[in-house]
Amino acid sequence: MRFVNLTPHTINVYTADKELVLSIRSDGVARCATVKNEVGMIDGVPLYQIAYGEVTGLPAFDPNAIFIVSLLVRQAVPKRIDVLSPGELLRDDAGQPIGCIGLSR
């Protein structure tokens, strides 16, 4: 199976025992279109309502590929069995993200 990372950064996938099993560089970016409407102000800070629309940058179904995308993109295409997102965030001792534990469907 071929893994295709459609997030803007390298994805490091670990097991629950924190063993690195996959590291894959970005190969493009899949995104959801956004529409931002200002709906008010709170103490001079603009307040927006965001609506998400069409997904761009996601190739058609490929039976030999798994596409790794953001959670937002994955939720926008719930019937795509070839689309996964990073699992639980894994951090180093300084609290910096270093990868994820598994992938999520």
Verbal overview:
With 105 residues, the chain is mainly β. It is built from one helix and eight strands, in the order ββββββαββ. The chain has one helix at 71-76, and strands at 2-5, 11-14, 20-24, 31-42, 45-56, 65-68, 83-91, 97-104. It is flat and about 45 Å long. The protein starts with a strand and ends with a strand.
Architecture blueprint of SSEs:
Blueprint (H helix, E strand, L loop, with lengths): L1 E4 L5 E4 L5 E5 L6 E12 L2 E12 L8 E4 L2 H6 L6 E9 L5 E8 L1
Parallel strand pairs: 1-6, 2-8, 6-7
Antiparallel strand pairs: 2-3, 4-5, 7-8
**Unreliable spans:** none
For the largest beta sheet, what order do the strands appear in spatially?
1-6-7-8-2-3
Per DSSP, what share of the residues sits in E-state strands of 2 or more residues?
Answer: over 45%
Mean pLDDT equals 95
Structural class: mainly beta
User: How many helix segments?
Assistant: 1
Sketch the major β-sheet. Answer: 6 strands, mixed
What proportion of the residues is helical, as a percent range? under 10%
Overall 3D geometry? flat
Alpha carbon gyration radius: 16 Å
Helix-strand string: EEEEEEHEE
CA(first)-CA(last) distance: 16 Å
By DSSP, the count of extended strands is 8
Short description:
The chain is mainly beta and 105 residues long.
Give short descriptive properties of this protein:
single chain, six-stranded mixed beta sheet, two-stranded antiparallel sheet, 1 helix, 8 strands, flat
